[in-house]
Amino acid sequence: MTKSLVDGIGQLFILAYKEDTTQLASFFKQVGCDVEVLRQVHRPEYKTYSPSYLCLLNHRQAWERALLSEQPTLIVEADFVPVSNFAQLPPPYDPLDQQLGIAWLYTCAAQIYHITDQGYAEGYSTSMVAYVVTKQSAWQLIELAEGVKADPGPETYTPWDSGIEYYLRDRNFHNYVPWRNYGEHGGIPNPEHRQNNLSTTHRADVLHGPLAFKPSYQAVFKERAYGRVKGLGRLFLNKYLRAAVLQGSVHPGRLLWFALGRQLTWRL
């Protein structure tokens, strides 16, 4: 019998700066997670750093802690809003996979490449709102952080999160995206995205269940409808499942069922 995601996680870190994490931490403690909040301490030299690099530093802090755990580590940002049935959900990755790289619980600009014999989806996502790593993949991500530090450096914006899937895949890790999202991104848009002509808002396209509590953003119905419509648009525009991937697949039926079936819900 497949264990729940919560049963297979060794530790959970909530990444924050000044945000109130009381509600989020309380929820995870109630579902049985070993929770610790990692807050970034401001330093004088950070004044000229890009917010994207400061975000990377916070995630790196969690990756360094992940090196100490033999079990996978769950990392969420302070504005993650989990679904209420989080404790009952299975892992979105193969628990027996010794080459587990990263498994997203919340996806943005997701794509699927392959459905395993066990039914797990290997694919791409950006955004680091909620994800799972292992000690082996965390070490590689620390190396990635060192590379960003060297070039382009702390003061320059870099979409480092968009390259993680490629980085780990090139090092023979398997990266997974979920059947449906385990929660929502409840935060406000990153101002650097607008400055660099990127999408200013991202929401979960399909949720695994009702949210455990209300996100911080206003007009919840409108924002959730936006996420659903955008998700359907990416599906029908062949962005979630690209035609070339489908045509080259040994099991195209698995890909089609995964891509279409996950959208068959009235839930916003």
Describe this structure in words.
This protein has 268 residues and is an alpha/beta fold. The chain is 33% helix and 18% strand. The chain contains nine helices and ten strands. It has helices at residues 5-8, 22-30, 51-66, 135-150, 164-169, 191-195, 220-236, 243-247, 252-261, and strands at 11-16, 35-39, 73-77, 80-82, 100-104, 108-115, 121-126, 130-133, 174-177, 183-185. It has an eight-stranded mixed sheet with strand order 2-1-3-8-5-9-7-6, sandwiched between helices. A two-stranded antiparallel ribbon has the order 4-10. Helix 2 (22-30) links the parallel strand 1 (11-16) and strand 2 (35-39). Helix 3 packs antiparallel against helix 4 (135-150). The longest helix has 17 residues, at 220-236. The radius of gyration is 18 Å and the shape is globular. The model has no long low-confidence stretch (mean pLDDT 94).
* Estimated radius of gyration: 18 Å
Question: Structural class of the helix and strand makeup?
Answer: alpha/beta
Low-confidence stretches: none
Shape: globular
One letter per element, helices H and strands E, the order comes to HEHEHEEEEEEHHEEHHHH
How many angstroms separate the termini?
30 Å
How many strand units?
Answer: 10
Largest sheet: 8 strands, mixed
